[in-house]
Amino acid sequence: RKEVEQDPGPFNVPEGATVAFNCTYSNSASQSFFWYRQDCRKEPKLLMSVYSSGNEDGRFTAQLNRASQYISLLIRDSKLSDSATYLCVVNLDSSYKLIFGSGTRLLVRP
Amino acid sequence: EAGVAQSPRYKIIEKRQSVAFWCNPISGHATLYWYQQILGQGPKLLIQFQNNGVVDDSQLPKDRFSAERLKGVDSTLKIQPAKLEDSAVYLCASSYGLRAGGRRYNEQFFGPGTRLTVL
Predict the structure, then answer these.
(1) Is B69 within 8 Å of B75 (Cβ atoms)?
(2) Pick from A103, A81, A83, A108: which is nearest to A34 by CA?
(3) Closest residue of B to A41, CA-based?
(4) What is the arithmetic mean of pLDDT over A62-66?
(5) Quick check: B56 and A97 CB within 8 A?
(6) Is the pLDDT of residue B70 over 90?
(7) Long-range contacts of B4-8 (CB under 8 A, 24+ apart)
(8) CB-CB: which of A42, A98, A103 is closest to B45?
(9) Chain B, 2-61: which have a CB under 8 Å from a chain A CB?
């Protein structure tokens, strides 16, 4: 079983749509959680951290369910510029070693 | 603030040849990471340095891969000899370090990567 699992997509949605991505992780001792964004042929960039209480940054909402070992990302009012691959990332311990999922690809069409 | 620099950006070699990648982290960042990203997959950590010491190299194929960060700043990653399955993007990342405390200080910033093709 992979340590971090994501649906690879692609998710093909029209502008203005709401889209949700899910991610599961296998290690219950995981300490912190993130979503990174990676544009085609570019490096990953931190999109947002994920907190147990859930957190929102503009059109983006992230949630964590530790009991189910499940992380989600919701994007409201999708823009063309949101087209990218979204990587679910888990930190296992205090050394800040990050484990990346394979990513979910999002395509937003006009 | 200058970002993480990597060179070369692209490299094509034949199998069994050697190759080296260079990384210059963001100034002041004590922790440096090398990742391998195979097409269609997420980045996989190869090695993590804290200053010039190795924190984690458990996933580095040590029979062919080596890395160093002699002065605690720049780092090089070498593959000798290369195999076809080494074709990937090699990403370098840096962060302030393990002692800075708090999640935001440990955010990893990635360089543009080196795209390696082994023929």
Answers:
(1) yes
(2) A103
(3) B112
(4) 94
(5) yes
(6) no
(7) B4/B92, B4/B93, B4/B94, B4/B109, B4/B110, B4/B111, B4/B112, B5/B111, B6/B90, B6/B91, B6/B92, B6/B111, B6/B112, B6/B113, B6/B114, B7/B114, B8/B114
(8) A98
(9) 31, 40-45, 48, 55-56
User: With an 8 Å Cβ cutoff, are A98 and B55 in contact?
Assistant: no
Using a CB-CB cut-off of 8 Å, the residues of chain B touching A99 are 45
Comparing C-alpha atoms, which of B76, B89, B98 is closest to residue B24?
Answer: B76
DSSP classification of residue B1: -
Question: Is 70 exceeded by the pLDDT of residue B1?
Answer: no
Residues of B in contact with A45 (CB under 8 A): 110
